């Protein structure tokens, strides 16, 4: 009968769903062959799986697996079969129902190379790997062809230790008959009646451990040995330069145990990819000519995929109308477009130099209205930085981090070389990134970019070039690779485009940010918090605190709780009241409780060297340590020198929590104000009990300490902390009008925090900190007009906080304060509480920019002195000294002003010099 080839096509999804867990037990080989939807741990060679208990497994720890990252895109398998006699006159044809058939125990033959040359595929591959599966005829004589077909996992087990025997190489692509001794190459198998691994010739599904890689994993044994091989059309982006070759797996040299970690190749996922990088360098082409439409991208100057155009120096993204909405330039080198290959939605390329590179762009369409591109540039040589430059001139940008000089949208000036993108105290150092920070940016042309959390991310900019520099590096950086990994930099991120800015932000929030699981205490939304800090600073004592509480009652103000700030202890790091300043703390708390006041305490993560607890923490190893790990790292903060607790250490967390529980049980403390937590208070080089790659992960661990007290807890730093149901406050404000930590910075800061996914916002103290040298006025007390305008704005925030009390001025200020405290309780708080409940489901902001309801409106993108509460309450405070009028922008719609005026407008309306008296704030309700 004339030779025939039967082609079957099926697709397997190797993506690990979010939150997937390792399988505790490994099913039989028959089960794996009959179920082409393996759990994530199936994707690794059996010898490298934690659940594999063979005594012959490799003496190396299993590499960590990040099951939250979708590393395994779909793989389409093209399986071809030579005529196989399953019975008289019957031939094995293509699989049905998406699964390949299993060969019965009969003979099968691999077509010779000259027949394979004639194979032409008419459909392009639909994913990163295209795998040809075939059955070899059962050999009858012993040769060493087994070196070409024995599964990788079995060879790795046999190479463990020093047990390897080198054997001569042979080449036999035409399917010559061979015979193998069974005992020497025995392997595990199943006795299931569906397991045909005892046959002479069997079809076995090939499982790639990751996109672009392949594993020959038959787990079969015949009466003479193995009878399966795999031909690989494309090794995909994870092997970069090895692509578009139809190869048989044919190692030219033994794979020794030290191959796993030796050599310059490296990868953040550990040794597995080293193995495959080495295997890829030994793959031998069979000179088989195959044509795959769209896979070869030779001799091109510009490559297009969906809305993205790639050239050797970077890429641009267009919207559906063809306009450029995003541009990124490569500053780490140029791509060799002749080396690029496109398989399915993956476009992978090499570089123009010999230095190894792992680069790909994957096109993802998660929704009909959203188009995303997953970009990865990974250097495979240690200590080489990766840098891309994003042009921001096409749009207005928002997000990133809070800053000392806060604008909305982001306003960039000057030049800054890339520096670590980590949390910092911008009050002490105005050039740091702020304490609330996420590697996420959003633009007015409906484009968003999210840097992967695994990236050692550094950010810089150049105002002249209108570019932001996104850099990944480990050299001269506080970022560290995972233990056992070489410092190979990887810059990976996702760029998404949608129809409008609101919809793309909603998608990104749901995709990348966690959401809180509860709403804080309703009293914090309804009634003001009263802090001792701006009024008394560190001179607070028992008498002053009780007098402060008495005045709150005297002037008929409500109170969510009193906040006893710095300094109620004698030394920083103690958790006992200073008996000189608070001679009877227990009686004081009892008096406050009987008067209806709850009390929270100011705390911090430092233990100064003169504290009684310092030696305890040193002896128990509770501090962050020097890089050697032997000595505690001493740090300087605004109140002295000491150690900083290591919140990656469970013992330090338990000790700190026990101190807080003791304060709560002894005095009835309601909650705590968690100060500091930024990474600039860590040494440049340090070590922690649990190694951390990103210093900002320390911030995350610190914020978790507030979870038990989240009803009334307050945090000033946050990183990946959106799920913590606490109030987050901006860093302290100065008592000034301007954008540098002044009144004008308040709305841009709150909007930025909202865009970063933190919705329960406490806008710090009304009037600012009232420092003598940082106050607009003749004395430390904030300027009267500034105080009133600040009070009016705070009344429309999720929560209000007093420190300098209104009775420090005059009766008119007291009346204005009462008016806006009541307005906040009656008008603002109900809306905010309703929106707070929605935050748990959607993550949408409570405080929103005007473009939220006016997408596509260029004016709305630039307004930084107005905001929305939800979609139906717009606020326009006066933020200029000496002014009792302001310009107001009204989006199209039906609005009613606080004065009763109605505006039914189909186009946006500018109200010029709209009158607003000193005791007023302009606001409009959608009707």
UniProtKB/TrEMBL annotation:
Composition bias type Polar residues, residue spans: 48-57, 168-190
Basic residues composition bias: residue spans: 19-34
Stretch list, region Disordered: 15-63, 156-190
Keywords carried by this UniProt record: Endoplasmic reticulum, Glycoprotein, Glycosidase, Hydrolase, Membrane, Nucleus, Signal-anchor, Transmembrane, Transmembrane helix
Zinc-finger is among the record's keywords: no
GO BP terms, alphabetized: carbohydrate metabolic process; skeletal muscle fiber development
Domain Glycoside hydrolase family 31 TIM barrel: 539-681, 743-824
Zinc found in the keyword field: no
Compartments it resides in: Endoplasmic reticulum membrane; Nucleus membrane
Quaternary assembly: Interacts with IGF2; this interaction is required for IGF2 secretion.
PANTHER family named among the record's database cross-references: GLYCOSIDASE FAMILY 31 (PTHR43053), MYOGENESIS-REGULATING GLYCOSIDASE (PTHR43053:SF4)
Family per record: Belongs to the glycosyl hydrolase 31 family.
Protein name: Myogenesis-regulating glycosidase
Organism of origin: Solea senegalensis
């Amino acid at each position: 009968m004339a030779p025939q080839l039967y082609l079957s096509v099926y697709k397997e999804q190797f993506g690990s769903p979010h939150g997937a867990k390792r399988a505790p037990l490994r099913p039989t080989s028959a089960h794996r062959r009959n179920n082409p939807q393996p759990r994530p741990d199936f994707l690794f060679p059996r010898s490298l799986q934690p659940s594999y208990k063979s005594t012959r497994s490799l003496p190396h720890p299993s590499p960590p697996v990040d099951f939250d990252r979708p590393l395994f895109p779909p793989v389409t398998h093209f399986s071809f079969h030579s005529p196989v006699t399953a019975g008289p006159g019957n031939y094995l044809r293509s699989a049905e129902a998406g699964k390949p058939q299993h060969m019965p125990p009969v003979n099968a033959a691999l077509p010779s190379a000259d027949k394979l040359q004639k194979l032409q595929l008419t459909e392009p591959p639909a994913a990163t790997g295209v795998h040809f599966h075939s059955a070899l005829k059962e050999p009858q004589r012993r040769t060493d062809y087994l070196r070409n077909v024995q599964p990788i996992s079995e060879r790795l087990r046999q190479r463990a230790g020093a047990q390897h025997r080198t054997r001569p190489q042979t080449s036999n692509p035409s399917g010559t008959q061979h015979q193998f001794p069974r005992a020497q190459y025995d392997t595990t198998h199943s006795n299931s009646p569906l397991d045909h691994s005892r046959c002479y010739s069997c079809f076995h599904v090939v499982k790639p451990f990751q996109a672009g890689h392949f594993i020959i994993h038959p787990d079969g044994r015949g009466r003479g040995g193995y009878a399966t091989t795999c031909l690989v059309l494309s090794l995909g982006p994870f092997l970069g330069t090895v692509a578009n070759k139809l190869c048989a797996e044919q190692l030219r040299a033994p794979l020794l145990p030290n191959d796993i970690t030796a050599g310059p190749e490296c990868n953040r996922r550990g040794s597995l990819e080293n193995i495959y990088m080495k295997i890829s360098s030994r793959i031998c082409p069979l000179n088989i000519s195959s044509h795959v439409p769209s896979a070869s991208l030779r001799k091109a100057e510009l490559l297009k995929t969906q809305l993205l155009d790639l050239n050797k120096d970077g890429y641009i993204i267009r919207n559906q109308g063809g306009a450029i909405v995003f541009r990124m330039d490569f500053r780490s080198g140029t791509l060799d477009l002749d080396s690029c290959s496109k398989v399915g939605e993956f476009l992978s390329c090499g570089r123009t130099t010999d230095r190894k590179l792992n680069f790909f762009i994957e096109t993802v369409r998660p929704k009909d209205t959203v188009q995303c591109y997953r970009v990865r540039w990974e250097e495979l040589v240690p200590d080489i930085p990766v840098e891309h430059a994003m042009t921001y001139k096409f749009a207005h940008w928002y997000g990133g981090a809070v800053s000392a000089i806060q604008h909305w949208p982001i306003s960039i000036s000057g030049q800054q070389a890339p520096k670590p993108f980590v949390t910092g105290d911008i009050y002490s150092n105005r050039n740091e990134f702020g304490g609330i920070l996420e590697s996420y940016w959003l633009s007015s042309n409906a484009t968003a970019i999210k840097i992967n959390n695994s990236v050692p991310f550094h950010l810089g900019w150049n105002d002249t070039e209108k570019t932001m520099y996104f850099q990944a590096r480990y050299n001269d950086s506080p970022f560290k690779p995972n233990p056992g990994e070489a410092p190979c930099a990887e810059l990976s991120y996702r760029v998404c485009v949608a129809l409008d800015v609101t919809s793309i932000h909603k998608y990104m929030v749901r995709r990348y940010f966690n959401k809180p699981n509860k709403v804080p205490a309703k009293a914090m939304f309804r009634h003001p918090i009263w802090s001792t800090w701006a009024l008394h600073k560190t001179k607070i004592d028992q008498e002053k605190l009780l007098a402060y509480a008495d005045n709150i009652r005297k002037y008929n103000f409500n109170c969510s709780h009193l906040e006893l700030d710095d300094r109620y202890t004698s030394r920083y790091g103690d958790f006992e009241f200073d008996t000189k300043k608070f001679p009877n703390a227990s009686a004081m708390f009892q008096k406050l409780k009987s008067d209806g006041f709850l009390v929270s305490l100011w705390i911090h993560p430092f233990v100064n060297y003169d504290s009684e607890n310092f030696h305890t923490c040193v002896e128990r190893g509770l501090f962050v340590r020097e890089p050697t790990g032997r000595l505690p790292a001493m740090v300087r903060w605004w109140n002295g020198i000491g150690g900083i607790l290591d919140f990656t250490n469970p013992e330090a967390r338990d000790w700190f929590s026990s101190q807080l529980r003791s304060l709560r049980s002894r005095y009835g403390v309601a909650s705590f104000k968690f100060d500091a937590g930024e990474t600039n208070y860590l040494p440049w080089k340090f070590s922690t009990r649990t190694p951390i790659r990103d210093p900002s992960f320390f911030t995350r661990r610190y914020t978790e300490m507030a979870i038990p007290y989240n009803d009334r807890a307050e945090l000033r730093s946050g990183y990946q902390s959106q799920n913590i149901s606490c109030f987050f406050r901006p860093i302290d404000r100065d008592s000034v009008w301007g954008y540098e930590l002044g009144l004008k910075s308040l709305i841009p800061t709150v909007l930025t925090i909202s865009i970063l996914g933190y919705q329960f916002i406490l806008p710090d103290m009304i009037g600012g900190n009232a420092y003598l040298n940082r106050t607009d006025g003749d004395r430390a007390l904030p300027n009267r007009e500034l105080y009133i305008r600040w009070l009016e704005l705070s009344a429309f925030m999720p929560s209000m906080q007093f420190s300098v009390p209104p009775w420090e001025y005059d009766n008119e200020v007291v009346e204005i304060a009462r008016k806006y405290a009541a307005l906040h309780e009656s008008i603002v708080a109900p809306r905010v509480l309703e929106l707070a409940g929605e935050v748990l489901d959607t993550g949408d902001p409570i405080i929103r920019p005007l473009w939220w309801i006016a997408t596509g409106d260029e004016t709305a993108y630039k307004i930084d002195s107005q905001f929305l509460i939800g979609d139906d309450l717009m606020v326009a405070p006066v933020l200029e000294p000496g002014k009792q009028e302001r310009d107001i922008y009204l989006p199209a719609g039906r609005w009613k002003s606080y004065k009763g005026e109605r505006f039914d407008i189909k186009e946006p309306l500018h109200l010029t010099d709209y009158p607003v008296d000193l005791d007023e704030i302009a606001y409009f309700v959608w009707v």
